[in-house]
Amino acid sequence: MLRESLAFSGFTAKDLAAQQDFYSTVLGLNVEDTGMGLQVHLGGDRMVFIYQKDDHQPAAHTILNFPVDDIDAAIDELSGKGVVFERYPNLPRQQDEKGVLRGKQLGYGPDIAWFKDPAGNILSILNG
To answer: Which has the closest alpha carbon to 29: 116, 20, 7?
Structure first.
């Protein structure tokens, strides 16, 4: 029944204007204000929906992952736009100076780095 459904995910934010600016200006994504929230258009005709919630609480886990071809170039570009990468002390391996958990070289999953949107939602870039 749902096999052909064009499913999408959604999450909340307190300030939609800040979200729209971040996702469009900093991340370079096409963002459409629908009047009920923001449609953020992702690659491959995918989208995610951000909606207003006055008592928004960010999730304690990654809500959106962006696969990239070159994680170092992506980090440099995002850092140049003011993005700060998160540091997590309890990971199975230590993050490098850019904040990347390098898993590929060790056969331990992708290279991945985390950052937050203005609402505190955790996003990642990864290269696997």
So the answer is: 20
End-to-end, the C-alpha distance of the chain in Å comes to: 32
Question: Cα separation of 4 and 11, whole Å?
Answer: 22
For the full predicted model, state whether its pTM sits above 0.90: yes
Q: Say whether pLDDT at 51 is over 90.
A: yes
Domain of 21 in residue numbering reads as 1-53
**What pLDDT, in 10s, does the model give residues 9-32?**
999 999 999 999 999 999 999 999
Domain count within the chain: 2
Q: H helices within the chain, ranges in order?
A: 16-21, 71-80
